[in-house]
Amino acid sequence: MFVFIDDLDRCLPENAITVLESLKLFIGHANCIFVLGMDHSIVEAGIQTRYEGKIKIDGREYLDKIIQVPFYLPPVTFKRLKASLEDDSETLSEEVWNVIRLGMGGNPRKTKRFVNSFYLSWRFLNHPDRDLQEKLQNGNLSHISQERQNFYLAKILVFQMSFPEFYQHLRHHLGDWRYLEENVILQNQAAKGQENLKDKKELARFWEDESFQDFMGKTSKRSSQNYPPAPSSDIVEALLEATSLVTETLG
Q1: In whole angstroms, what is the distance from residue 156 CA to residue 134 CA?
Q2: What is the rounded CA–CA span in Å between residue 166 and residue 156?
Q3: Lowest mean per-residue pLDDT among 5-9, 38-42, 222-226, 241-245
Q4: For helices 146-162 and 108-126, what crossing angle results, to 10°?
Q5: Shortest CA distance to 39 belongs to which of 77, 6, 2, 80?
Q6: Residue 172's pLDDT is what?
Q7: Contact yes or no for 114/161 (Cβ under 8 A)
Q8: How far is residue 211's CA from residue 191's CA, in Å, rounded to a whole number?
Q9: Which of 37, 100, 108, 173 has the greatest count of CB atoms below 10 A from its CB?
């Protein structure tokens, strides 16, 4: 008999340890095999936190006393992950997939969620309600190519999922995406770029995040991929409305 216990790392540390303590009562006596699915590093950290200041304990040693046959799954390569999602992703270009790779870090669950959100947002942009239809007709989004629209949509979804504070910031400062690219990223001198953030303290705070810097730099016009320039404010506004609707629908 096999008993599978999955996602142990997604439990609160107290609950994960309760499960492990309960297993200790059965291991060696029950005529079954327990299979635990987890990110061991997260569970180890939870064990350290749970017993911190009470007893001296090492998370790895704690698990070693319970787990008799450890088996580590190899990480899923982005190439394989992309192939598993491509059947439903015919509209996604290599540029968009690169945005996904950089923005989701190759995490399978986040990537799948991203693709689902992308298609819901994409359908809304291409089959808009009356309010968005008026904005599209009065703005520039309807005049750009589908490839460029997809690229902008992918980037703003990365903002929403991986850099939520910047995503919320864009709601009130629609032009800051373009400002960052034109006045910071495309500057040949780092000092000049920093100088242009001197009077934009909130934007400068976002720019201190190295992962945000890396993503923006590698998906900007400056990169070797020859990506399109940052969108205008009216395009950003339409994208925000589409992605906000998807968030409300999924919520």
Answers
A1: 21
A2: 10
A3: 222-226
A4: 130
A5: 6
A6: 92
A7: yes
A8: 19
A9: 100
- At 11, give phi and psi (nearest 5°): -80, 160
pLDDT of residue 231: 92
For 120, 124, 144, the CA distances from 131, given in Å and listed in that order, are 17, 12, 19
- Whether 67 and 34 have beta carbons less than 8 Å apart is answered as no
- Please state the pTM of the whole predicted model: 0.75
- Joined tokens for residue 205: 């705070």
* CB neighbour list of residue 61: distance below 8 Å, 6 or more residues apart: none
Question: Hey, what are 76's tokens?
Answer: 């899923």
Instruction: Tell me the average pLDDT of the chain.
Output: 82
Phi, psi angle pair for 249, to nearest 5°: -65, -45
Give the position of tokens 């730099």.
Answer: 217
pLDDT value, residue 211: 94
Q: What is the DSSP string of 117-149?
A: HHHHHHHHHHS--HHHHHHHHHSSGGGS-HHHH
Cα 165 to Cα 169: distance, rounded to the nearest angstrom: 6
Dist CA 124 CA 136 (whole Å): 12
Measure the CA–CA gap between 29 and 5, rounded to whole angstroms: 18
Alpha-carbon distance of 121 to 95, in angstroms, equals 18
Q: What is the C-alpha to C-alpha distance for residues 236 and 238, in angstroms, rounded to an integer?
A: 6
Tokens 């142990």 belong to residue: 8
